[in-house]
Amino acid sequence: MNERVSQTAAAQDVRPMLSVRDLNAWYAESKVLHGMTFDVREGELLTLIGRNGAGKTTTLRSIMGFLQKRTGSIRLNGEELIGRRTYEIARKGIAYCPEERAIFSSLSVKENMFLPPVLSEGGMSDADLYATFPNLKARAASRGTLLSGGEQQMLAIARILRTGSRLLLLDEPSEGLAPVVVQEIGNIIRELKTQGFTILLVEQNLRFAKKVADRHVVVEHGKVVDILTRDEFETGMDRVKSYLGV
Amino acid sequence: MFEHISTQLLFGQVLLGLINGSFYAMLSMGLAIIFGLMNVVNFAHGAQYMLGAFVAWILLTTLGIPYWGALFVAPVIVAIFGMAMERLILRQLQNLDHLYGLLATYAMVLVIEGLIRQQYGSTGIPYQNPIPGGVNLGFMFLPYYRLWVVVFSLVTCVGTWLLIEHTKLGAYLRAANEKPQIVEAFGINVPRMMTLTYAFGVGLAALSGVLAAPIYQVSPSMGSNVIIVVFAVVVIGGMGSIAGAVVAGYALGVVEGLTKVFYPEAASVVIFLFMAAALFFRPSGIFSGKEST
User: Which positions carry the signal peptide feature in this UniProt record (chain B) (predicted)?
Assistant: First the structure.
């Protein structure tokens, strides 16, 4: 299986924006990633799918440098990120939207939205953000944590779009949301892709993942066990479901 | 019952209360900033206040730098010392229980006070009043320097509150207190921000020390004498609440002053009675939940 993974990666990997090679990571003494290897190409929307505890979120957190102990290689446009601090990684052009949304309760919606600094050119303007997320404008003065789950998710995505980062790490943006809101989030993510953002998405909702992604990386026990194109994902749904135990 | 109380005595004690309240407010605000934004119980705050006064005195006696220069130079020097403390000691404890920070900062108090006492002795050292004279208001004599202390501390407190609550920098600090990893993931150097926050809080303590030098004698124990009251003020205002610390500081200074007029025997304990009442009726402080930090 590993041979197939590396062959798939090599065949499709023309010029990866993000290249993860043999990534191992630990929470204290507990090893949670066991040689994760995959690439994300520029402009691509790649999902990490797998069961709970497979290591998907940990992979994103490792990329952002949240985990102290990591080995292997994480390269962004060829530049090594292992050994760098989180704020340095962010300044290289990676933005992170966490699973728990991490809206700041002490700040208003507007303060939450405009908290991240502009790190490089190419980020969305204030007007663009309000045009993409009009309901946030109406709630600008409210405390961030008083928004509904869907609005909080939109706020969590909106605030990272003004930084100028071109690679977005989105951790389960559809989790716990009503179907109509999930659809809206899906539309926004597709729109971001058409605007040229590269997106690495952790997702458990297979229907949602199928609609938005170009490729899917299946993660089990902290390592990549399969990489599927959109077509392979459609036709091999039984295989995917067996990976996920659905 | 209180016919024997003269207007002069009453207003004199109100003024004294306001002056003490100015120091309580500035010191408790610094403590609240450090606790509210860094979760560090800075027991060394009193020693840093004392260092501010001593540095002002040393600047005057060795380099001839007068009060007005020391007002800016001394807080910067003590803040740099605070930055070193944060980097070398407090940062190592940041993931541990508050108790470790409290014990470490208490150990710093013992070291700092011990060194100052060993070098300069325990006796209080006078510092010349930079604004001598005053104005007779008819019902009381108001020294100019004391008026300056009240006005300056009020401006400093309001300015600091505005900085924390109504600026982008303040929003970064409040956000970093809630979720430091996420703020760092926005590209902000949070460890450096924490060092500067601690330095700012320490600088405020030192600024209070410089203000206090001409009023009280400069002595190694001047910080220890005031820090317990300041902690009580912070508890009453709400741990980490900047507005709470400032309002409670001034209010309790005046209450303490008035108690000296009406029932002097209770003057030294009245603040602690208020603290006990606050802990009983509103354990998280009077201003808890009314602001973010």
Answer: none
Q: Which pLDDT tens digit goes with each residue over A195-242?
A: 999 999 999 888 888 888 999 999 999 999 999 999 998 888 888 888
- What whole-number distance in Å separates Cα of residue B75 and Cα of residue B56? 9
Overall number of domains in chain B: 1
Put simply, the answer to whether A105 touches B293 (Cβ < 8 Å) is: no
Q: How far is A108 from chain B (nearest CA, A)?
A: 10
Q: Is the ipTM of this complex over 0.85?
A: yes
**Cβ–Cβ of B185/A91 closer than 8 Å?**
no
Residue A110 sits at the chain B interface (C-beta within 8 Å): no
Inside any domain, residue B246: no
Is B285 part of any domain?
A: no
Residue labelled with tokens 């003057």: B267
| B290 reaches A (C-beta below 8 A) | no
Q: A-B interface: how many C-beta pairs under 8 angstroms?
A: 58
pTM value is: 0.85
Cα distance between residue B111 and residue B104, in whole Å:
11
Q: List, for residues B146-170, the tens digit of each pLDDT value.
A: 999 999 999 999 999 999 989 999 9
Burial of B73 (0-12, 13-18, 19+ CB in 10 A): middle
Which residues make beta-bridge pairs with B118?
none
Q: Which site among A87, A108, A110, A160 would you substitute to test the B interface, given the most B Cβ atoms closer than 10 Å to its Cβ?
A: A87
Q: Determine contact, residues A115/B172, Cβ cutoff 8 Å.
A: yes
Q: Is the sign of the CA dihedral B44, B49, B55, B61 positive or negative?
A: negative
Q: What is the pLDDT of residue B238?
A: 84
Burial group, residue A190, by CB count within 10 angstroms (0-12, 13-18, 19+): middle
Amino acid at A86: T
* B238, part of any domain: no
Residue B260 domain-assigned (yes or no): no
Q: What is the DSSP string of A160-187?
A: TTTS--SEEEEE-TTTT--HHHHHHHHH
Its domain, for residue B45, covers: 7-121+138-223
Q: Please check whether residue B142 is in contact with residue B8, taking contact to mean a CB–CB distance below 8 angstroms.
A: no
Cβ(B259)–Cβ(B270) under 8 Å?
yes
DSSP label at residue B60: I
Name residues 150-179 of chain B within 8 A of A (Cβ). Answer: 168, 171-172, 174-175, 177-179
As a whole number of angstroms, the distance between CA A244 and CA A208 comes to 15
How far is C-alpha B58 from the chain's CA centre? 21
Cα angle B265-B270-B272, degrees, rounded to a multiple of 5: 130
